[in-house]
Every structure is written in structure tokens, then in C-alpha cells.
Amino acid sequence: MATPAPSHFDILEDIARELSGDVNFPTCLDAAILVRNALKDPFVRTEQIVQAIRIEPLISSKLLRLANSVIYNPAGHPVSDLNTVIERLGIDIVRMTSLAVAMDQMLKSVHLSSYNAIAKSAWENSLQVAAIARMLARHNAYAAPDMAMLAGLVHNIGIFYLLFRASAYPEYRHNEAAMIDLLTGWHEGIGESLLHSLGLPETITDAVRDQSHLTMLDTPRSVSDILYFSITLAGNLPAWQNKVVAVEEAAWQEIIRSRHEPLRQAADDEIAELRAALST
């Protein structure tokens, strides 16, 4: 007998209550929040950021790895101390990396064993979209490359959060159809709310909220546009984005792919670099 589809009301009510107070995330989000709080101070000293980062060795190690990757160290001059790492990467990438650690830890959570394939797909898609977004931003003057990459990396955070929370509900634990329906309908809004509660810039939260909204432009002119283009260019859509689109939008997405295919191919090396730097 098929499992009846849940209404989603209970879990969404619980999540709304949680996001209005203290966010209940798995391990490493505490460290991400400490980093967030340190970065909220416009007069924060590098030493204070270092102190927050050192609490979570995973964040420290991934920042070091990223700072020494080809993306941020094309000249091959290695760094080993966190002060220099922060100066090289900048605040937005420090914030991005702390969130990447939280997402990567969720991917490895035993609670997600039933949906391991979805979690891995979300992570791989995040890396692809982030690298393509950075490449796109470099080719126009409408967004900083690191800000675009941050939007790409966190655009699936609503997927991870919903997977983590829904796995505690029996009606979702072994009901993939219900889980996909939940993700498809709510991951963008939940992602926006979660990132807002973590103190990310409005340009990022808006882009995550609007990531599937049709952008009929020849050239992306904002972080939101870049995210839409990057998702389109990333290749096969994951299950939660594989929706039926209007003929007009499908045709426009094909135009985007054909126009920017060389750029997407050029991003392959950066995708590999990000995967190596941010995955364990």
C-alpha cells in the first residue's frame, strides 16, 4: 500500500517557528554562526575572525586549502597562517566556507542515509553552479565574482536544511515522492529565510529566493541573474528543479546554454578546484 502524501503543514509550521528563533542546524553551524557574528561588526579585527574560525578545525583547514588552490593562488605562493588566509580570501569567502562546512557535514549525517543520493546531488550541483557563477561574474561588471560564487554555493542550502529536518518525520523518512514534493515547493523560500537568519547580504538572499524565476536577458546584470544563468548552464537539473517549464522559458534556456557553452566548459577546472577545496 502506497504511503499517503503528507500535507507539509506540520513540518513547515515547525520550521517557521524555528527560523523565527534559534536555528537548529547540525554540527558546525555553531561555528558558522560565530563567524557570522564576528563578521557583522564593521570594525572587526582579523584576529577576532581568526579566533572564531579556530573553534572549528574543519573551517580552518578548508580555508587554508582554498587559499592555496589555483583559484586564489595562481602564482603558487602558499600561505599557512589564518591571518594571511583571511586577507587573501576576503570576508565573503570566509563566510561561504563556514556555510560550506555546515552543508558538507549535513551531507554526511546519518539522518540523511535514506536520501544520500539527493544530498550528494545537491552538493555537486552547488559546486558546479558556484564555479560557473564566478566565471560569469568575471565576464561582466554587474557583480563581484566572489559574491556570485557565494550565491551559487549556498543556493541549495534550503535542500540540505529540509532534508535534515524532514528526516525526523516518519512520513518523509522513506517516502521519496513526498520528500521531492517538499523540496520542489519550499527549498527556495526556506533557503532565503535561513540565509537571512544567518546574516547574509540581501543580494544573496534575494538571489536564492528568485533562483528559478525566468530571466529574459542577453547578459546577466545582477547576482540574481547570474545565479539563474549558472543554474541553467550547470547541466542536468536535479529532481527538485526538474519542473515542467513553459515553452518560452525552455527555448530561452537553450539560447543561454548555446551562447555560454564555452564559458561553462572553461569553468570545469574551477569546479574541480572547488570540489577539492571544500569537500573532504
Q: What report would you give on this structure?
A:
With 280 residues, this protein is mainly α. The protein is 67% helix and 0% strand. The chain is built from 15 helices and no strands. α12 crosses α13. The longest helix has 23 residues. It starts with 8 loop residues before the first helix and ends with a helix.
Instruction: Output mean pLDDT.
Output: 82
Question: What's the CATH class of the largest domain, please?
Answer: Mainly Alpha
| CATH domain fold name of the largest domain | Hypothetical protein af1432
Pattern of helices and strands: HHHHHHHHHHHHHHH
Largest sheet: none
Helix content: 55-70%
Number of domains: 2
Number of strands: 0
In CATH, what is the homologous superfamily of the largest domain? Hypothetical protein af1432
Rounded to an integer in angstroms, the radius of gyration calculated over CA atoms is 19 Å
